[in-house]
Amino acid sequence: MDAFIDLLEKTKDLLAVQQQLYGDRIFVDFSAEQLALSSSEHTFLSMIDLSNKVSTCHKCPLAKMRRHVVFGEGDVNSDILLIGEAPGFHEDQRGKPFVGEAGQLLDKILAAINLNRKNLYITNVLKCRPPKNRDPEPYERAACFPILQKQIEIIKPKYILVLGRIAAHVLLNTSRPLSNLRNRVYRKYGALMVITYHPAALLRNANLKRDTWEDVQVFQKCFSGTYNGDVIDLDNL
Length: 237
Ligand code: URA
Fold this sequence. Notes:
This protein is an alpha/beta fold. 48% of the residues lie in helices and 12% in strands. The termini are far apart. Bound molecules: uracil.
């Protein structure tokens, strides 16, 4: 019975998305060619398709412990992508990224550079919560990274803000301290990328706020087209 109710809920969600996009026209086939989708509709549906696939992922043992996969949310057609580490307790409970205390601080940081959750997309390197919020293990990062890469491929962001050491290590394939990685602008995945401290680190150590403020101001310059400093090109090494 539970499985049946679950199926009904999923069907309802799918129809609601279709209705948002196409009014009362019903489509049973999501092929882009047949629907003659605009590029933003195609992006939207590609992300839903990926999210559906990821919702049943069991590539690592975290799947058995999760309440929800925390896939990501926001505007898939935005130029701006934020990447954090992994869901915590509250994110796992609600299935949404950055909804706990660190998320509230993140909202304040975003507001200070004239951004909000509606005009960007936000996700994490890991889509499932590691127990007791421990650092993700190398095999968990390796299992989950292809999902993030696919999300980047779909969104094609122009600007990426990386939050924290773990996300920076995975994206730059390095283990250098975050203090050596921040305070720079990179080109990666065709986007300008800025790395800064994770908001949870700021909650633990208020001394990191000044550096974070500098980093996000640089990020603001990038997405508002006024950054004219050096760029480390990681796409053409
Ligand atoms: N920390 C993260 O890195 N991501 C979240 O979604 C929440 C806390």
